[in-house]
Specification:
Helix content is 4%, strand content 37%. The protein folds into two domains: 1-28 and 105-182, no CATH class; 29-103, no CATH class. The strands form five sheets. The protein has a five-stranded mixed sheet with strand order 3-6-5-4-14. The protein has a three-stranded antiparallel sheet with strand order 7-13-12, with no helix packed on it. It is mainly beta and 193 residues long.
């Protein structure tokens, strides 16, 4: 799922007050690929721990004749094996590896928001809770932040440092996001070894 901030025509998703609609998400189409093969005895538990729920740390080809999957776009959903015995051959492992391909990668875009500001007051860094100027009480919903720990006001155009990025800078709907990658990356070089 990724945040839905623009419709298919590129128009900002807003309510009737021309404010952005927060919390909308859209699915990203992914493709599941399963590779099955037989191999001599394999430590299935070690393979699961090494690859399961991890992404490729470099471009990777499942089959040499096909195109490579870009770094971070291929996730190993499962690495399973079953031990079998065949007369005249002996013990071997029937392996099954399931990959899932996401063309935009496995990052999650998260709105920079919170109940506190974090800034340097000239002497030290402080955390200060946002106060509702009408009631004088602490706010009861998170406020947008500017990527630098300060409150983001409509029409701001902040210079947010990486890993933050600005959407709609200079407009009432300005927002700052960061991309979080929840899956570790590892080399898939020996995934079939």
């Amino acid at each position: 799922m990724v945040p839905l901030t623009r419709d298919r025509a590129g128009k900002a998703v807003q309510n009737s007050a021309r404010q952005p609609i927060e919390g909308l998400e859209v699915e990203v189409c992914t493709t599941v690929l399963t590779v099955e093969f037989n191999k001599g005895l394999v430590d299935v538990i070690a393979k699961k721990q090494t690859y399961q729920n991890k992404c490729n740390d470099a471009n990777f080809k499942i089959i040499a004749a096909h195109n490579a999957f870009a770094q971070g776009t291929l996730r190993c959903n499962s690495w399973d094996g079953q031990y079998a015995f065949e007369q005249g051959y002996g013990w071997f492992t029937q392996c099954s590896v399931e990959f899932e391909y996401n063309p935009v990668g496995w990052g999650i875009e998260v709105l920079d928001q919170g109940f506190y500001e974090h800034f340097n007051n000239g002497v030290q860094y402080v955390e200060q809770k946002f106060i509702n100027t009408t009631t004088g009480m602490p706010v009861d919903s998170p406020q947008k932040l500017n990527g630098l720990g300060r409150k983001l006001a409509p029409n701001d155009n902040p210079a947010a440092p990486l890993p933050f990025f600005v959407v709609g800078g200079g407009t009432p709907a300005v927002s700052v996001y960061q991309t979080i990658y929840p899956y570790q990356e590892t080399s898939f070089t020996n995934v079939f070894a």
